[in-house]
Amino acid sequence: MKMKTRMIWIVILLLLGAVLRFVFPGHDFLGYLLWGVAALVFLFPILPGWGRWILGALVALGCAALVILEIPILRDAKTDANPQADYVIVLGAGINGMTPSLSLQERLEAALDYLNTYPDSVAIVSGSQGPDEPVPEADVMYSWLVSHGADPARVIEETQADNTRQNLENSFAIMGAGGSDPADGVAIVTSEYHLYRAKRMAEALGAKPLGVAAHSRLDLQLNYFLREAFAAAYMRVAGTLY
User: Fold this and answer.
1) pLDDT higher than 80, residue 134
2) pTM value?
3) Is residue 146 classed as helix, strand or coil in its secondary structure?
4) Of 54, 75, 96, which closes a domain?
5) What is the Cα–Cα distance from 195 to 211, expressed in whole angstroms?
6) Where in the sequence is the domain holding 138, given as residue range(s)?
7) How many domains would you assign to the chain?
8) Which of 58, 129, 194, 215 is deepest in the core (most CB within 10 A)?
């Protein structure tokens, strides 16, 4: 590839990466990926032979590690068979004013289907108030479910959790106060790409999780499945649940 053509491709990749990172919410890791490709396009031709060999080996190892990390994430990205439980925890996501974000609405739709399928189950909607949010996410989640036909008596708000671990810990405490043990089974509604990490956290906290997948748009899946590989790697290496 000639220098001029290579530089044109580098600029295109950098600009597309910037658009995905800064213009379209939920596409940041795809932006980072394009920036990484731009860096490779720039570096590979200017390195000596041994440098190209090392860079190629590192890229190959990185791709192999990514595939290995993605296998269990993809395996868990579905609703478990017969996920019936006394309680279903709906994990929060962002809100836009008093309106659920796209990811949160997808989770709420999955939760509503679950409540309709299992009429004896109770939902715990979990999510605190972010710095740019007017109310806790759980308030919006409760209002959405009730306005779409859920029985208010079957929806409990948990408004203090700032992350997935706190979502689970606080919800498990609510279950315990209601006389239910998460170790006997608890359904968890979250985006399909997030189920692997959520279920591993629930297991580490002593629960028996039953996954309920909220299905995302394809472009968001591509971004967040990529993100989850890095999150899962960090969780394994650091031994930190979050």
Assistant:
1) yes
2) 0.88
3) helix
4) 75
5) 6
6) 87-217
7) 2
8) 194
